[in-house]
Amino acid sequence: MILLGAMSGTSTDGIDVAGLHIDAQNGSLRFLGHRSESFDEDLRRSLLNLQQIPPRFSPDQDPLALMLESRRRLSLAYASAVRGLLGDLGLEAQDVHVLGAHGQTLRHRPDLGYTYQMLDAALLAVETGIDVVADMRSKDVALGGQGAPLVPAFHQAWLLSKGIGDRCAVLNLGGFSNLTVLQGQQGAVLGGDCGPANCLMDWWSQSRFGLDYDDGGNIAASGRLNEPLLIELLQHPFVQRAWPKSTGRDDFNGAWVMDCIARCPSQPSDEDVMTTLMA
To answer: 117 pLDDT exceeds 90?
Structure first.
């Protein structure tokens, strides 16, 4: 059977859709292809504003209406990416058994018993003509789990199907980083978040240099590591917390970085901050 998976990560730069064929008899997985579509700038700005704590709204705006409008636009963007991949692969909607759609994480606080990924799954199902599975994290959080990261279960299935999985690890670098550790065919799979990867670097690039991201690492390469700032950043309690653990922009955000910079004995240059965030 053919399955599609769609998500937009904490980098908040666009949507990725992938196609898989799963052999129902032996469980083997075959990758069919993928498609990425960038968010238009207005939608991206809205999604980033909703992730701010507190969210950024004008005094005369209705926050709930704005969130619902953004959810609709996000869901339509998901549908566009899915239809694009179907066209790339020469498939029709009826060829697909199910579409798994993650949505955009706006809040993730399993320690407080909640996580929220924004998506209108019903609209996505109507627009694509494919059954949709969504809201993938909530039950695990309800059962006392972290609800994230989701990818270790896939890493286990994919690598074992390829005959790989004996004491290996997978490091995933996106807006945040997460690590999967596989311990053989019969061993448990371990996984958890490590901390921020590119989300803070992207934020610094956008706020200080007017660039979407540090293309080629040129800004980071031009700076120097600031040891006092690095020490401040590594004091975040999440870094030393034992697995299982997960995190997001609730923990690691621009306001926190600015507080860390303010505690440094001397103010680093913008380039030095980028180098240190990379470290």
So the answer is: yes
